[in-house]
């Protein structure tokens, strides 16, 4: 357990690769005037939308539009099968743009988005954007000295329950847990799993070398395992134990154990490694645990079941953004500004205009994602039929 009186952490020189260049500042577009958020609004439709400018007024670079079109195209089959939890689009409204995307030339992507999409702002439009990447950590297929942190696949006794099947009042709510003595109980939390709750069940995909690095791989939701022989195994999110995610960076800042400027991913890693016992206790304050599966072929995979693309794919809350929708960001950092595609979700990505930007793999991606914290405005690009239907209703 942590001491009752927090002591500020004094960082040692980091052994991490040299950080990327400092953030490039930018001036975000102002948000659009919007009515107050209705009390209790839990979806984009309930929060309300206001019409935005035409695509051609956004100043999106041709290469950004081309990359976004490629990502949108591979998302289309999943987009058209999903029920849109945001309430903004209805079945069939993606059909026209998805059919056109199949053969539309990437070099003319700007005209594609201009023709088939209108823009809307959800709620007050005030955006907050963080970053994630595909980490690579050292691991072994067998448990051995230096490799003793288990990486688990999904257990058979982890059960998903759709509460909406039991009550109309619980529509859209789901929980995860397990059955114990004929009772449905919460699944093991991080501390219980760390103490061996899943040992001896043959669930291990591999064993990681560094508990703190694996902790952050769980936060990212996918990654690469570098085995002792140099080969690479890719793993992706399969499920989670149903426990709420707790951001340990905020905990440490609130306690005064990390000073301003130390709460980046690398700063937190240095803190966790400085005292492994203290670090393990802090990590266990986040009860969430992620289970993985091995990936073959393109990846990592996002929540739509299609590969996510660095500098193109966003994680969003599906209650506020239809997964597969293009998103335009205008922020106080230049690097994430432009057109993205919402292809993923995240345990900490909740609420309107909250996004997590994916930067790919490698040290540059790690540096950008680890230090990403940007604010500004966001617009969703929706099929024109959806926008036309929403506006007369005064949403």
Automatic annotation (TrEMBL):
GO terms for molecular function: hydrolase activity, hydrolyzing O-glycosyl compounds; peptidoglycan lytic transglycosylase activity. Residues 20-38 have a biased composition (Pro residues). Keywords: Cell wall biogenesis/degradation, Lyase. It comes from the Bacteria. Residues 136-293 form the Lytic transglycosylase MltA domain. One of its GO terms (cellular component) is outer membrane. It is an enzyme of class 4 (lyase). Its EC number is 4.2.2.n1. SMART domains: MltA. This is peptidoglycan lytic exotransglycosylase.
